[in-house]
Amino acid sequence: MAAVPADPQPQSPVPNHLAIIMDGNGRWARQRALPRASGHKAGIKPVRATVEYCAAHGVGQLTLFAFSSENWKRPPEEVRGLMRLFLEALDREVDELDRNGIRLAFIGDRGKLSPGLDAAARRAERRTARNSRMQLTIAVAYGGRWDIVQAARKLAGEVAIGALEPSAINEARFARALETAELPPVDLLIRTGGEQRISNFLIWDMAYSELYFSDVLWPAFDTAELERAFALYAQRQRRFGRTGEQIEAANC
Ligand code: FPP
């Protein structure tokens, strides 16, 4: 028998799970005749401002796309510079994140990270594991297709040893095999930098997310732009396949 869908929930004006594609660092640097690395470095400030704003405004989950499966194709010195920047930022910020009750998590293909970055990520996760004000998830070496394939492989392995019946694989069981198993669906995706695409981010988790494309380059992103995104999000009627009348009745 098909599962009965849950009643629609009254919509919150603030997304519970906000995901961001931080694009435009390179162009921001080029406009200033600076190396691309300066654009990435300048991208740290809006990360900090966004984390503070989200934690203060009741966002439960903030997921940032820091480095995709496809970003390995960039010039090796840019890749090395980005990995160094992540490690430095982690070392510098973890105390303050912890003090502010923020839990850190990493998703992605850990085996591709340097041992130093992988170890630092694990230390930060352990250190902040009990915090509950907001979870900040950093997607590094992450790709939505990679995640779906690794989940399928995991389930196929269970089927092969007789631990799982193929007929027991449904959406909920599949979602539990993803790297994002602990994360709720994305409510709002923001992409900066003017492009209007999803670029292999959380493709399973964004099936019903609202999208906000900003022309602002990531290093120039600020809380005013975040407020605009939240204001537009609050006006959207999320129907999840239902009718507008059903949603209005649930909100009464
Ligand atoms: C995309 O801009 C940005 C990246 C691949 C790196 C994102 C990294 C940061 C914002 C640094 C701080 C992050 C954390 C989590 C500490 P791009 O290089 O593709 O820009 P372009 O499209 O203008 O070339």
Describe this structure in words.
With 252 residues, this protein is α/β, with parallel strands linked by helices. The chain has helices at residues 25-31, 36-42, 44-56, 76-99, 115-127, 144-160, 171-177, 223-235, 244-251; strands at 17-21, 61-68, 102-107, 134-142, 188-191, 210-213. The protein has 9 helices and 6 strands; from the N terminus they run βαααβαβαβααββαα. The two termini are 30 Å apart.
Mean of pLDDT = 94
The 3D shape can be described as globular
Terminal Cα span: 30 Å
- The parts where pLDDT drops under 50 for at least 5 residues are 1-5
How many DSSP-defined strands? Answer: 6
Question: What distinguishing features does this structure have?
Answer:
252 residues; alpha/beta; six-stranded parallel β-sheet; 9 helices; 14% strand; globular; disordered N terminus; binds farnesyl diphosphate
Summarize the structure.
The protein is of the alpha/beta class.
Question: Which secondary structure elements does this structure contain, and how are they paired or packed?
Answer:
Layout: E1 17-21, H1 25-31, H2 36-42, H3 44-56, E2 61-68, H4 76-99, E3 102-107, H5 115-127, E4 134-142, H6 144-160, H7 171-177, E5 188-191, E6 210-213, H8 223-235, H9 244-251
Helix pairs in contact: 1-2, 2-4, 4-5, 6-7
The protein binds farnesyl diphosphate.
Farnesyl diphosphate binds at residues 22-27, 40, 43-44, 47, 64, 66-67, 71, 82, 85-86, 89, 138, 193, 218.
